[in-house]
Amino acid sequence: MPERSEPARRAFLKRTVALVPAGALATAGVPAAGRGAETGAPATPAPAPYQPRFFTAPEWAFINAACDRLVPDDDNGPGAVALQVPAFIDRQMDDAFGHAARWYMQGPFDENAAPEMGYQSRQTPRELYRRGIAAADAECRKRHGQPFAQLQPDRQDALLADMAQSQAGRPEDRLDRFFAFLWQNVKEGYLADPIHGGNHNMGSWQMLGFPGARASYTEWATRHDEAYPLGPVGVSGQRS
Amino acid sequence: MAARRLKPVDAVLVGFGWTGAIMAMELTEAGLDVLALERGEPRNTNPDFSYPRVADELTYAVRHQLFQDLSRETLTIRHRPGQRALPYRQLGSFLPGDGVGGAGVHWNGVHWRAYPAELQLRSHITERYGAGFIPEDMTIQDWGVTYDELEPYYDYFERVCGTSGQAGNVQGRIIEGGNPFEAPRRGEYPLPALPALYDSELYAKAAAELGYHPFPRPASNASRPYTNPYGVQLAQCSFCGYCERFGCYNYSKASPQTTIHPALMQRDNFRLQTQCHVTRVNLSRDRRHATGVTYVDPTGNEVEQPARLVILCAYQFHNVRLLLLSGIGQPYDPATNTGVVGKNYSYQILGHVDLFYGRDTIFNPFIGAGAAGHVIDDFNADNFDHGPLGFIGGAYIGPGRTGGRPIQQLTLPAGSPPWGAGWKQAIKDHYLHTMSIGTHGSVMSYRDCYLDLDPTYRDALGQPLLRMTFDWKDNDLRMTQYVTERAVEIARHMKPDSMHAVHHKAGSHYDTRPYQTTHNVGGAIMGSDPRTSVLNKYLQSWDVPNVFVMGAGAFPQNLGYNPTGTVGALAYWSARAIRDHYLPAPGPLVRT
After folding, report:
1. What are the residue boundaries of the structural domains of chain A, listed by start?
2. Stated pTM of the model
C-alpha cells in the first residue's frame, strides 16, 4: 500500500466535500489556488477551469478522484490533479489514441488470448474508459453504497489496489485492464510535455530534475557526478 | 479496373530507407534511371524533426509518430506451428519504420561490423566444437559472404555515416582501448569515439578491473563536425537525449536524410514518389523474370510500373511478404523442411541489470546519445569458449543512455510502490541516481521459427498479413542467463546501494508487449545453395535474377550486434556486384 502524507489527505478530504453535489462536478476536481500553502509545497497558480469534452460528470468525478490517489499532492510536489492530468486524459480521449486510430482493429478478436500476445480487445480506449469507470463505480456501490469519488481515501486506495489485480468478469469488463490504461495515461499526463495539457508548469519535471526540451548538453557530457543547474523548459518555450 | 501502365524505368526501388538511398546513389552513379517508391510520407530534418517540436516524448516515443501505422498493415504472431496467430495490434516488441528514411530516421546509431566467424557460423561452430554441438532443430547457416569480402563496404558505410569509435585492430595491429576481438579494419573510424558519460566511466573501470576489455560502442552520432564522401556535412552531437524513436534535429545522427539525400536529390536520373504502396512484383509468364511492380498510388488507383531491375529495399517483414505475395521463390514449409521464403526468422534476446545509487551519485540520465556508452565483447559471438557452456551465441554488455525519458525510462528498485505517494517518492529518489547495464544478445535460427502469409487477417488493401511463428529456445535462454550473470558480477563490483537483474527465464515465451529490439532478421536469407537460401551472396534472387532483396531479411540467423552496419555494408556490396557484373551481362551472378 502506498504511503500517504497527512497534509495531502486533509487537502483531499476538503475537496471531496466539494465533489458531492453533482452540479459542481465539472470544475470541482480542479484544486483551489493557495492549496500549496497548506501542504508546504510551492503554490501553483490556479488554472482556468477545464470543461471535459469526453467524460460525463460522474466519469469526470471518478477520473479526478483516481488521479488524486494515484499521484497525490504532497511535500515532494504537486500531484496529478494539480498538474491537470484529468484534462490531459480527457483530451487524449478525443485524440488518435482515444479512437485507437493507429492500432490494427480488424477482427476476429480473441479477448481470451494469452497476455503475451498483446492487446486483443475490440475496445478503443474511449470505450474502455466508459465501461471501466462504470464497472469501478458499480464495484464501489456494491461494497460501500457510494461511487468511487465519494469514498474515503483509504477505501479508494484499496479499490485501486484491487482493480490492479482483478481478473474477474468477462475479458472486456476486467478491471485490471482498465486500471493498466488508467495508470499508464496518468503517468503520461503527469510526465509529458505541457503542450499535451498535463504536467502543468512542468511540475513533475521540477521534482525529478528533468530539463525537458533543453536538449543540448555538449559540455555536460564530460561533467560527471555534478548536479545540472538549469530548470526545465517545454516545447512551447515555457520556462518554470 | 486495369492498372495504368507507366513508361519503363531502368530500376525501381521498393522502399526508401537506408538501403533504398544507398542503391539509388549507386545505380544513378552507374547512369541508370532510378525510381524509388515509398509507401509512407516524405520526411526531412526540417520541418519533420526540427527543434523544439521533436523533443516530445509523448508524441514520438509513446504514441509512435514516426513508426508504421498498424491500422493499415501489421503482422500476426504465434509461438508455434498449429496455433492460431493473432495480430500485433499495438506497437510493442519492435517498431518498424515508415516513410522516407525508414527506421534509419529513428535508430540509435549503433554501428557494428559482424565477426568473421559469425558470417560462417555453421562451418565455424562445426570446426571448433564439432557438428554434434549444433542442436538438431537449429538451422543456422553460413552467409555465403565473408568478412574479407565485406570489409571495404563496412569501411565505406562507416565513412558515409561519420561513425565515431575507437579502432581495436587496424590491419592486424591491436590498439589499446579498442575492441581486441575486432577483425582487422583497413583504417581508424572516421571520427574519434564519443566521450564516456558517467555511467560508462564507472562501468569501464569496473570491467577493466575484472580483466575484461571495455571499449566505446561504435556510434553513428558524430563526435565532431564531419563531411562524408558525398560532401554532406554532419554536426557535432549535442547529447540531447532525443535519438532513439526520434529524428535528429541537430544533423548529428547518421540517417539517409543527413548523409545521402542532399547529394542524391540533385541527380536528374533519380525520382522519388511517396505514398505509393507496392503490392506485388510482376513476373513474366515463366516466372523467371520480373517485369516491374504494381503499386497503389496516393489516390487509391493501381499503377503498373515496368522496370528492368526490381530492388526490394523495404523493412525485413515487407520484403519477405512481397516475395510471398508475388510468388518469387518457394515458400518455406517447416513440416517438410523444404522451400526457402520465410525460413529462419530470428530475433534478439536482451537482459539488464539496474544499479541504484544514493543521492551523492548523480548520473543526469537526460544527457545521452543513442549509441554512446562503453561495452565489453568478451562474451559476444565466439569470443569465449562455448565448449563447457553448451550453447551457441553471445551478447555485448554495457550501459546505454538514450535520454532518461520520464514516461518510459523511470527505473525503480524491485518492491517500490507501484503508484501513489510512495511511487512519487521513489521516482524522485532514484531518477538522477540510477544507471543500467544491458546485455544485447543473439538468437539462432530454428526449423519452426519462420514467416508465411496469414490465412485470416488482411491489410487495408485486402492482402494477407505476414504471419510470424517464433518463440524463445533453450539455447538462447541459457545464453542470456549466462551473459546477464556476467553483467551482474560487473555491476556488483561497481558497488551500488542496490541492484536488480532481469533476464528471460527457462521456459518463458516470447512476449510481444514490451519493447525489445527492432532487429528482426531472416526470411529472405542469403547463402550459397538455392535449396537452402532465397538469395545468393550478392542478395540476388536465385529464382528471378533481376530481383535483388536488401536488408536484414538476408541474415540467416541473428548477431548479438545491432544490424544496421551490416545492412549498409551488404547494400554497397550488392550494388557493386550489380554495377560491375550484372549490368554488363544481366543474369544470375552465381551459377548453380
Report:
1. 6-210
2. 0.94
